[in-house]
Amino acid sequence: MKTEIKYLPILIGATLALGIVIGGWLNGFGDDHFLVENSSKTKINKLIDFIDNEYVDNVNTDSIVNITVDNILSQLDPHSVYISSSEQVQVAESMKGDFVGIGVNFYMYKDSVAIIRPIENGPSAKAGILAGDRILYADKTKLFGRKLPSDSLFSKLKGEQGSVVELTIYRKSAKKQIKLKIKRGIIPLKSVDVAVLLNDNTGYIKINRFAETTFEEFKKGLAKLKKEGAMTLVIDLRDNGGGYMEEAIDIADELLKDKQLIVFTKNKKGSIQKTYATKKGDFETGKVFVLQNENSASASEILAGAIQDNDRGTIVGRRSFGKGLVQREMDFSDGSAVRLTVARYYTPTGRSIQRPYNKGSEEYFKESEERFENGELYEKDSIKVADSLKFKTPKGKIVYGGGGIVPDIFVPLEVEHGNENTVYLMKSGIVGNFVFEQLDRNRIAFKGLSFEQFNSKMDKTNLYFSGFKKYLLRSGLDIDLSKNKDIVKRYLAAEFARQLYGESKYYEIILKEDAMVKAVLK
């Protein structure tokens, strides 16, 4: 990772841009939408034929078509996009919520496939694979010493459900090779990271995206928290770029009373489709808080807007991204697809939270970077809202449209983290890599420790803080972490906890000093 840290916010924005194009209703259109020909369409088809048949050099006309499609869509709006067939497979899998594989988190370490942690109750865990194991062969295919890209590795480990792969493992702790036969199974791709209690009666659910299984995962987490005594619910949508609109609507339905409006859409012809809550909600009376930040978009904003506009709960954090456009997906025969904006959505009070995009996509996505520069991430008064876009909730609260959901309780970035670049760094993959390598060198130092003993050990030592600074330098990142030592130590301890004890322990450490969570618990 050679990128300078000052550009991390831009990278986060670029990642968000990819995430939010997934948002909306992703329903297919029939082929009849493409049958009507006109002179412009004929001209494009003929031009491609001319190039194919007559141009002096050999040209890949497929790539020309892709560029043409991209250019056409760029004239529309920032969220109408073309997705190649290879990208479409990856996106579809991510949004499906599961895949077939062996169930491991791995890391390419010194040209070897190193196991960070087998997924709990997954095929690999049941077969006896341990954290720190190296996969040398999948059947007869050599996986070490080849600098294989991740997609090639995935293809060797994935397969048909129930199919068997024989792995040759090197177990460093025992200094021996082991052969294990693993039957591939369905591996969940969780969209709900965790559902835990913050205190005796406050539940917390973290949603990282809205995939096919998100509502089901949310319901399961909510039922668990209610059983444990939760009477207040905190839904964390920070850095959630969106996904399936229906999943966000179903979650809102759990929180709102019968016949309360959740969202409505309006298309080119002015046709309005309204979606209301039903009687089935499982959490219609307890207190609700929604955490959001500048990277919360699309379906996240639908959920937050429904809660805010119905006076159902409190929005905590910073102004959300501002995407109020609905896409539908249309597939091409080669496996690629186009996601075309077909409607705008509006919150229950009638707000469009879509920010302007008349200056083009580049300027549109740059607006996220400008929020750092104009101070709105640090002071609520710096948020620019137009009085003409003022709306009232049923209880008379003023809310604004025209560019994201403005929170009820503002939590500035500098108060939350002290230094925004440090936290962007601590949420990046480099931390996980560092922690794995530390454990790989001396995993026995943590063997048999209870979680309380682990916490005490991490609090007292500066060993890993010092080691991380050196690791960054070797990676080409010269960053002064001295002013944010507590933040760095906390995130390092959390990552150690994740790799040693699981996801919930990561959040248990992180949330203790989380400024937004503290604002809720006040």
Automatic annotation (TrEMBL):
The chain crosses the membrane at residues 7-26. Residues 175-356 form the Tail specific protease domain. Residues 98-173 form the PDZ domain. Pfam families: PDZ_2, Peptidase_S41. Keywords: Hydrolase, Membrane, Protease, Serine protease, Transmembrane, Transmembrane helix. One of its GO terms (molecular function) is endopeptidase activity. Gene3D superfamilies: 2-enoyl-CoA Hydratase, Chain A, domain 1 (3.90.226.10), 2.30.42.10, 3.30.750.44. The keyword Nucleotide-binding does not apply. GO terms for biological process: proteolysis; signal transduction. This is Carboxyl-terminal processing protease.
